[in-house]
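Usage

Read records sequentially. Each one opens with the input sequence:
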Amino acid sequence: LFTDGYLPQINGVATSVEELQDSLTERKHKVYIIAPRFPKYKDKAPNVFRLKSFRLYKNPELRLSYMFPDKIFQKVLKVDFDVIHGFSGGSIPSLGLALAKFKKIPYVFTYNTRLNQYTHYFLGGRVLRPKAVEKIVELYCNVCDYVIAPADYVKEELIKFGVKKPITVIPNGVNTKKFKPADKNYLKNKLGLKKNDKIVIYVGRLAREKSVDFLLKSFAKLKRPNTYFVIVGDGPERSNLEKLAKELKINGKAIFLGATPHHDLAKMYNGADVFPFA
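and closes with the structure output:
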């Protein structure tokens, strides 16, 4: 699994890779992870190769591997892979693609991230435009052997870009062992709310591409006095979203909990009434 997104990062790609790694290992496959090196982070999982990297973006931290082989990559070259699987695009998946071509083995690519929606992270979107990214995605996918999309609309988007290679929709897996029945009133008790109050919950990174501002504006139109919008997570847009909540005069009902430990999340899910998708 060749990926620029992996532990200790907390994002969708890192979670997908970790869950796939665990699932394949349970099925007796031998799984290798090739990911960027993070300063002072030590892996607990076996067969993880960390390549030298530099920080491309600070919040959330995004690291890219240098595009030249180092001593660790020399070890990767010696592994007898059956399949190489890349995620989202970037320097390490591109190394995986090159290695697959060199070894003449299949290269599978999962398009986790709709990259045309993320151009604002690179010099404010002034240099790299969405249309240019779509062309890059088309060219990249068309040299892969197989493409995986996490949802039907992503597959349709890739086809519109001009991707001709086979595309299969495989939704991201969920480790249900992490979600156990809990007290339905846990979240309400934590927030000091009444049992009859209703909670709309959003759990995720607070970034521009997540459209949480749309959720806040929609919630502001909801005319139900005993309903609260709980926002779990953190990110570069948090201060802007808190400011927007004040402007919409819902700051008393829009509750920002910040980053929350994983063991608390399942309890929070069980205490929610509505899950919006932005």
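Summary fields computed downstream for this record:
- The first strand starts at residue 2 and ends at 3.
- The radius of gyration is 21 Å.
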